[in-house]
Amino acid sequence: MARPNEEVEALLQEYADLISITGGDAFKARAYEKAARAVGGYHEDVSRLDPKALQEIPHVGRSIAEKVEEYLRTGGVRVVEELRARIPAGVRQMTAIPGLGPKKAMMLFRDLGISSVDELVEAISAERLRGLRGFGERTEENILHGIAVMQQAGDRVHLNVAMDLAEEIVAELAAVSGCARCTYAGSLRRYRETIGDIDVLSAADDPRPLVETFTNLSYVDEVIASGDKKTSVRTTKGLQVDLRVVPLGAWGAALQYFTGSKAHNIRLRERAVRAGLKLSEYGLFDVGTGDLVVSQTEEEVYERLGLPWIPPPLREDRGEVEAALRGELPDLVAEGDLRGDLHTHTDLTDGVSSLDDMVAAAARLGHSYYAVTDHAPNLYMQRMSDDKMLAQREAVRALDGRHHRMRLLHGTELNIDPDGGVDWPEEFLAGFDLCVASVHSHFNQSAAEMTRRLVRACENPHVNIIGHPTGRLLGRRPAVDVDLDEVFRACARTGTAMEVNAAPDRLDLSDENILRARRHGVRFAVDSDAHSVVHLPYLRYGVGTAQRGWLTADEVINTWPLRTLRSFLRKGR
Ligand code: DGT
Ligand code: CA
Ligand code: CA
Ligand code: ZN
């Protein structure tokens, strides 16, 4: 698979969780957690490292390196499997419920014998949790909400997981002789925030060599179906991939059809019908004569329906057809429009790459400016201090302009406290080039409290960007309860940007919230929130999300020239 590092990260994290829920050594659990993150963010493919090179990864000592090696060699780790076996599968599922967590899940299993998510729902409605220490009515609500979040995510995967795999498959198929075209379509081409299955489309006269290569890919576990029109496989990680092979002459119609969304396609078919045409994956046909009208390119299909080509992220039937008819499609922000990244971390706090490495990697991506925004002191685990921050500023100033003349900004990611205050007083904040401010605690405040909290943060003259504004973690943590319109109004009024956090497990703001925010005239920052050099390219997922929110380049502050950006960052000061 594309990233063995992520597989190993998941395994080490699972081991850490297992240690802590079975009452093991907390120090050991923490060590595995740190190693997991370090491996996930490591710049080299761990499956290519020998045991000695493995130990050069931060937080990976001999014993952890041995387990990684065992996993890469055999596909499993004995001690992890032993611990897994001690906990029923249903309980392990319970530990993943957002808002419940491993400790409480184990307590419910031990004290009440609850051993599955279904049993837990039953126990809550029978009020069997009442009276248990640490379980109030609010907790019950949170657990039920958490279960809903988990079930909603279902078997869908994050965008980067699907993208890595899809790009690998497309590259393999494109190399097969006779393959005239190959690309991914479906929700992935539309940059939807999670992906149900991957749809790959190829053009060839003879589909057989392509199907042959496809079904024999090393990471294919099972061929679910193989017919004339479609071959579906399941990968070893449980992700479904559909391959369709069409004649080159039908490429445009097929690409249009299989990109979707279904709702967008229905709108197009209605337009076709009104024009006496029939639209299918084979082409656009004249209903009267049955003759093919067009099918080779998507542009032709749209044009024949009286429309300009519509970018895939807009194809959700959210008014794009109407806008296209009026000639008012937005000129969407593109990845190439971004001049920099305004929210990133280093190993001074919870990042795993050094300042030098982050800066060098960012410069290689072609950024013309780049902000370093490590965590502020109130996130206690990070042990930030004034001195450390000032020392980092010196280091940042020394590197300024050194890599491809990329300009550096020294910032921080502040913690918005429950009342809307932040970590430092004005005088200290004034020393930063920019401040991101985020909610990192007290996620369960009421909507009124949370709204006041975020509005106050916007009103702080030194807060420039609200980081991951709703705090959601896809499949793991729901968005906070807040009156977003009120917050958006405050952003527009105070000159505070809303972040589009590009981390694939956040994508926060979401496409729908972006659409809402832009109606208030809000400005946005598309940021990677990178904690490692390998996260820097995640910006593409933020741009995809911004496009789904209809954003143009001028609405995104990190497409602006540095001078314009600096003036925005002054907030009228
Ligand atoms: P996913 O896989 O749940 O993330 O979402 P999609 O959009 O990739 O959906 P999928 O894989 O079921 O189908 C891929 C595309 O094929 C879909 O976006 C539109 C097209 N399609 C599939 N079934 C239908 C259908 O019954 N009617 C129409 N008009 N289009 C369909
Ligand atoms: Ca799909
Ligand atoms: Ca599909
Ligand atoms: Zn951050």
UniProtKB/TrEMBL annotation:
Q: Where does this protein chiefly localize?
A: cytoplasm
Gene3D superfamilies the UniProt entry points to = 5' to 3' exonuclease, C-terminal subdomain, Beta Polymerase, domain 2, DNA polymerase beta, N-terminal domain-like, DNA polymerase, thumb domain, Metal-dependent hydrolases
The family database entries (InterPro entries) matched by this protein are listed as:
DNA-dir_DNA_pol_X (IPR002054), DNA_pol_lamdba_lyase_dom_sf (IPR027421), DNA_Pol_thumb_sf (IPR037160), DNA_pol_X_beta-like (IPR002008), HHH_MUS81 (IPR010996), Hlx-hairpin-Hlx_DNA-bd_motif (IPR003583), NT_sf (IPR043519), PHP_dom (IPR004013)
- Enzyme Commission number: 2.7.7.7, 4.2.99.18
| MF terms in GO | class I DNA-(apurinic or apyrimidinic site) endonuclease activity; DNA binding; DNA-directed DNA polymerase activity; phosphoric ester hydrolase activity; zinc ion binding
Coiled-coil regions listed in the entry: none
Give the source's domain of life in one word: Bacteria
Record domain Helix-hairpin-helix DNA-binding motif class: where: 52-71, 92-111, 127-146
- Could you tell me where this protein is found in the cell? Cytoplasm
Would you name any one GO CC term? cytosol
Per UniProt, residues of the DNA-directed DNA polymerase X domain are: 3-316
Q: What is this protein called?
A: DNA polymerase beta
* Source organism per UniProt: Streptoalloteichus hindustanus
